[in-house]
Amino acid sequence: MDFSTICIWCWVIPLLVGAICAYLGYLIGKSSAKGVDTSGDLQILQNKNAQLEADLAVCRDSLNTASAGDDAQAEAPVKEDEFDANAAKAAIGKSIKLNDLKVIEGIGPKIEGLFNNEGITTWGGLADLNVARCREIIMTGGNRYRLHDPASWPMQARMCAEGKWKDLARWQDDHKHGKL
Prior knowledge:
The protein has 180 residues and is mainly alpha-helical. It has 3 domains: 1-36; 37-73; 85-178, no CATH class. α3 (85-92) runs parallel beside α8 (165-174). The radius of gyration is 32 Å and the shape is elongated. The chain has helices at 3-34, 39-72, 85-92, 109-117, 123-127, 131-139, 153-161, 165-174.
């Protein structure tokens, strides 16, 4: 027996067996795919897709109706005679001006300017926004603001608008950097 020829057959035989198995697997897979009826599954998925699109249209309509109502409704600013600067200073620890958005954890002068450019100049106006709209507004300033998380800003603004200074101070102490 010649060992030099055995070495060649050790490579050729497995390659031939692998090629034959691959071809047979392809033929079996091709023939079994013809017998499967996927029209029922396809119809179910098309019906589900149509239902989801209808639900999405209803949601968009309700969102448009709600935002149209928000645009028509004027901001309810805190009146100067209702704003208690002393209570705010006692709770927060610094002087606070009426409708100063910088009181909210995470909002500085530049972000306040972005909101002011969009017509949001009061705590009540910010409290009425949803988080997605807040994110849109801060992204008008560019990519450098993408790291800011406005998830808590409307809630903090609501506390300011309602004069809940102790609650706001407690919340800001518990949630450093405005994170929920």
